[in-house]
Write a structure and sequence with these properties.
37% of the residues lie in helices and 31% in strands. The protein is α+β, with helices and mostly antiparallel strands. The chain has a single domain, classed as 2-Layer Sandwich (Alpha-Beta Plaits), CATH 3.30.70. Helix 1 crosses helix 2. The chain is globular. The mean pLDDT is 97. Keywords: Metal-binding. This is Copper resistance protein CopZ.
């Protein structure tokens, strides 16, 4: 499980956008978004850098927690 701090998420649309971005790179990825805590947990075969890039390409500031 990889955990990322993601800034800029404010609503359900943001949750869907981040989830779609990660799953576009790894269809089998399991994504859990905590809006209040501004964290995204991902179970994936991809590296943290690949996952961060996918989230950043959606327009969110992200870093490993």
């Amino acid at each position: 499980m990889q955990v990322f701090n993601v800034q800029g998420m404010t609503c359900g649309h943001c949750v869907k956008a981040v989830t779609r971005a990660v799953q576009a790179q790894d269809a089998a990825a399991q994504v859990e978004v905590d809006l209040a805590g501004k964290q995204v947990k991902v179970q994936s075969q991809l590296s943290a850098e690949q996952l961060l890039e996918a989230i950043r390409e959606e327009g969110y500031q992200a870093e490993s927690a």
